[in-house]
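Lecture 7, part 2: worked example. A protein chain together with magnesium ion.
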Amino acid sequence: MAKQKSISLNHSPEEELAHPDIENVLFSREQINHRVIEMSDTITSDYQTLGATELTIVGITNGAVVFVSDLLRGVRLHTRFDTVRVTSYYDYDSPVALPKILAQGKLRLDGKHVLLVDDILDTGNTLSLLRKTLLAQNPVSLRTCVLLDKKSRRVTPFEAEYVGFDLPDVFVVGYGLDYAERYRNLPYIGTLKIERRDTSSWDD
Ligand code: 5GP
Ligand code: MG
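Predicted complex, written out as structure tokens:
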């Protein structure tokens, strides 16, 4: 019989720091896991208090994919799951990125309790746009949940009902968050070394 290889999924903090492009780890794998379980528990009990037995979770791709998949597995209600795809682009006249919906979800939301999930709440433009779009479908309730909140960066007033961690005005990668599409697969969240922010230097 073939001998099974043992695979360790528990990286030590030292191993996590080992990624050569990461300057600082701000939230470790353990901190994130712990907080996401807390958030799932809070969401479960809040909706139970509301008398809701079913929750429709809508994740914003690509950034929220890792967070929402962990969150989803911690929620102890009947769930429906969908995604909307949003991109942010820079308009000539605007100093900030403007969001554009590339693909709508396919589930109907009328009469449903809906939880919209994103990775980061930054200027507030993305969630404001999506809140407006989803409310037009007449859900019974619509709340938002983000892992990270950069409150100081708000351009459009917006508050999420569920926030994992507050973050100052720093650019972060990992746990679904990218820089030029890299680093989404890191199990922790951190800042990028300054020399890696210039993609023209990427030859690997
Ligand atoms: P908002 O519309 O609130 O300005 O933007 C939210 C989106 O901007 C997030 O969903 C995320 O994709 C992106 N974003 C904002 N801050 C960061 C960051 O520090 N790192 C990364 N990778 N993306 C960010
Ligand atoms: Mg995003």
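The chain has a mean pLDDT of 91. Residues 29-50 form the longest helix (22 residues). Keep this in mind for problem set question 3.
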